[in-house]
Model the fold of this input.
Amino acid sequence: DPEAAEYLTIDSFKLILNMVFNEDDTYSLKYDEAAAAAEVEKVVNQVTDGTLQYLVATLGELGLEVNEEEAMEMTGITREDLQAQFASELDIEALFADLNMEGNFEVKEGKMYLSDGLEYGVDETMYELYSVEGNTMTIDKGSTGDDSADFIYPMVFTKK
Done:
């Protein structure tokens, strides 16, 4: 529903990734499960708020001027029910499982080549453009040419 979309905004979503480069030219990448769960909870709360605002607006268009609590009472919906419904639709493990990976890596001329698995070598046509400044590595863009993935860039890693 395009009208509902104006009420359903997500301010931000920060995903913490831990990347380890080993001396044997292998790497591992894992997402921080606790941080991801907290971000998903934030999204659930924002979607719940937006849904309730949309409900109030829709009832207003029908001539019923009510606040959120009155709208929930009229419809038999509770904030907790909405949050549980939205949370059940966001399976954290399924959403981010593909981010846990390991493989081989090679770096040269500002390009980082990563294999998808330890049993594979790096693909010279698939790389990430990166830069390092102090303790910070920034991955600016990938080589895939797929603009739909641009939302993940830049990725900033801080050495611990």
Strands lie at 17-21, 26-31, 101-108, 111-114, 128-133, 136-142, 155-158. The first strand starts at residue 17 and ends at 21.
